[in-house]
Design brief:
The structure holds two protein chains of two kinds.
Chain A lengths: L6 H7 L4 H14 L6 H11 L3 E7 L5 H6 L7 H8 E6 L7 H14 L5 E5 L12 E2 L2 E2 H10 L3 E5 H5 L25 E4 L6 H14 L12 H4 L10 H6 L9 H5 L17 H4 L35 E2 L6 E2 H34 L9
Parallel strand pairs in A: 1-2, 1-3, 3-6, 6-7
Antiparallel strand pairs in A: 4-5, 8-9
Chain B lengths: L9 H12 L2 E2 L4 H9 L2 E3 L3 H25 L15 H29 L15 H14 L8 E2 L4 H30 L4 H13 L2 H32 L7 H4 L1 E3 L7
Parallel strand pairs in B: 1-3
Antiparallel strand pairs in B: 2-4
Helix pairs in contact in B: 1-2, 3-4, 3-8, 4-6, 6-7, 6-8
Classes of the chains: A alpha/beta, B mainly alpha.
Chain lengths: 366, 261
């Protein structure tokens, strides 16, 4: 792999001074939550390691992951694409098209067997032999399997690749299937979100390149450093939650004062992501800061968990769309009515028994 | 808890024989029957069982009210700046504190099932293989369906009550404790012991949001149990042949008659 430059070589070639390079290393270390001791390690890695080839494929998706990715500020997406990785194939970002593009992918696969990272945006539909997503003249599922066969690791970008997202929502007519259910023999990192935060995407790549290993993953296979905490627990509106100050309607006084959006169905308390700490667009804002509740886009099956605007959401498991309160109150009502009725009949019966027991010799035996 | 039956006088022995075929049942042991021949009351619920019952009842009340409010918070109150006001925090604290008390109590109750008297075990098992028990179930259903003039006499829980206790308390409370701790583990953090123990359940049911919904549904099952339980206890106290409500205070079951049928 001598023909691939190291990161440092590329950066120097692009006119970046060593001083700026060191600054970049310390910024990256802090973005990853690492101590200052890691700065020289990162610098050393970037000076000596060849860039890692990446193949980025697109299945059933909306390209919001790519849109997010190219807006990364720390590190800049251009640094990642042009300096850090060797993005050898990405049909959305690459200049080549058609046969030339497909040839580039085959080239990379053959040249760097077992070396390259496969980044998957979107997921393959499996119904009708995968005919719902044709890429390069073949069903996407075939392309995915082919590209994954010799990959070192697979990154599942976004809710689509990680969990299925909207195309896998019930009834999932195309049988859209998350990557880890199709590729079962490779290490897979899920980076869910719709889309994932740009800095989370580039942060995951930077970590993998720097340390040459996968980041620590949680139970669901998400990088723990970005998906280890709930949005709610780091939300700047949390004091209003604890105080019991809630937005009751979109245009009320509480909404203007920035109260907690819990009652408006905010899914922050049940969602693991870094939005409330990293935020979006260079830390400008995130959904809750903009006055709308979190919709829980980085959680499994978030389209099938009822409305985004209620805290207690409808359950469809009972054949009707009712929430736990409606089901519980209906059941309690039926039982309460039954109890009242039963009590009334009991009272009547015992009155009747007493009447029969009045000591007239005739019916004393009754 | 076996009473030595050899030194019981002849008349009592006759009585005992009578009580072993009479409608006295509901987890009644030979010792209970021996007691009945001398007294009109049997000591059923030992002090720890009674104490647990009332602590548990209070905890469930707090849990249901606070739990409902956690899902559907009261209208916003602005007494002070958010940093100086902890209203919703206290509601959640009440829920967690009552849950801890209930959990510890439940473990204490399980412990007492092992070291306590015979009746302390009744809640935790159903004698599904006993034909006698099934006939008692049928009997009790008939009594509640007004098809029977007189109920049987029960020392412990009647079989319907036993079924309700088993499913709503033993199973239901375990369900609420387990799902509740799964939710609590999220607040504690994803690297703690609670997360290791209960965290995988979140993935099993389809995430944290789903876990909240089923935990909430579980509350309604407990509410329904409370309704039935209180109604049945009062009704039995009035209409049946033994004491009910006072038994959970004094521990003794007293019988109102010694009719043979």
């Amino acid at each position: 792999m001598a023909n691939i430059e190291t990161f440092y070589d590329v950066m120097r070639r692009q006119g970046i001074t060593r001083r700026s390079f060191m600054k970049y290393c310390s910024l990256t270390a802090s973005a990853l939550g690492l101590g200052p001791a890691f700065v020289p390690k990162i610098a050393h890695a970037m000076e000596t390691k060849p860039r890692t080839p990446v193949i980025w494929v697109h299945g059933l998706e909306c390209t919001c992951c790519s849109e997010s990715f190219i807006r990364s500020a720390h590190p800049l997406a251009k640094d990642v694409v042009l300096s850090m990785i060797s993005l050898d194939y990405d049909d959305t970002l690459m200049a080549a098209a058609g046969h030339a593009a497909e040839a580039a992918m085959m080239d990379t696969i053959e040249k760097y067997k077992g070396q390259y990272i496969l980044a998957v945006e979107g997921n393959p539909p499996l119904n009708e032999d995968g005919m719902f997503c044709i890429s390069g003249g073949k069903p996407f599922v075939e392309k995915l399997k082919m590209a994954a066969k010799d990959a070192k690791a697979v990154i599942s970008w976004g809710a689509c690749a990680s969990y299925g997202c909207v195309q896998a929502a019930k009834p999932n007519p195309t049988q859209a299937t998350p990557v880890h259910k199709v590729i079962t023999d490779k290490p897979i990192i899920k980076v869910p979100g719709c889309p994932p935060i740009a800095e989370v995407m580039t942060g995951v790549i930077t970590y993998m390149l720097t340390f040459d290993r996968l980041p620590e993953l949680d139970r669901q296979g998400r990088p723990a450093m970005f998906y280890g905490q709930r949005i709610h627990d780091k939300c700047y509106r949390r004091p209003h939650f604890d105080a019991g100050q809630f937005v009751e309607a979109w245009d009320d006084d509480g909404a203007r004062k920035g109260y907690c959006l819990y009652k408006m169905g905010c899914k922050g308390p049940t969602t693991y992501n870094a939005c409330s700490t990293v935020r979006w667009n260079e830390g400008v804002s995130f959904p809750i800061q903009s006055g709308h509740g979190c919709i829980g886009c980085s959680e499994d099956g978030f389209w099938d968990q009822g409305t985004f605007y209620d805290r207690v959401t409808d359950l469809t498991q009972f054949g009707v769309e009712k929430n736990a309160d409606q089901i519980g109150m209906a059941a309690a009502g039926v039982v309460g009515g039954g109890v009242a009725l039963h009590a009334a009949v009991s009272a009547l019966k015992s009155a009747q028994n007493k009447a029969q027991k009045t000591p007239t010799p005739m019916n004393e035996e009754a | 808890m076996k009473t030595d039956v050899t030194d019981i006088p002849a008349e009592m022995e006759r009585k005992m024989e009578f009580y072993s075929i009479a409608p006295l049942t509901g987890d009644a042991t030979e010792a209970d029957r021996a007691t009945i021949t001398r007294n009109t009351s049997v000591y059923v619920y030992e002090a720890p069982v009674r104490l647990w019952h009332w602590i548990n009842a209070a905890a469930i009340l707090v849990l249901c009210v606070s739990g409902y409010l956690i899902a559907s918070p009261p209208p916003s109150i602005e007494m002070a700046e958010a940093t100086d006001q902890f209203l919703f925090g206290y509601i959640r604290f009440a829920h967690f504190a009552a849950a801890m008390i209930m959990t510890v109590g439940f473990f204490g109750r399980i412990y007492w099932a092992f070291v306590g008297n015979h009746h302390a075990k009744q809640m935790f098992k159903l004698p599904l293989w006993s034909g006698k028990w099934w006939s008692e179930v049928l009997d009790e259903i008939k009594w509640y369906a007004f098809l029977k003039k007189n109920p049987r006499k029960y020392v412990g829980h009647n079989p319907l009550a036993q079924i309700a206790m088993f499913f709503f308390m033993t199973v239901g409370m375990t369900f609420m404790i387990v799902t509740g701790f799964a939710l609590y583990s999220e607040g504690v953090g994803r690297d703690g012991i609670l997360d290791t123990m209960f965290g995988p359940l979140l993935d099993l049911v389809g995430g944290s949001h789903m876990m909240h919904q089923i935990h909430h549904l579980g509350m309604w099952a407990i509410v329904i149990f409370v309704m039935i339980h209180i109604y049945a206890a009062i009704r039995e106290d009035i209409m049946s042949r033994q004491s009910m409500v006072s038994t959970m205070i004094s521990g003794t079951r007293t019988f109102k008659d010694d009719d043979p049928n």
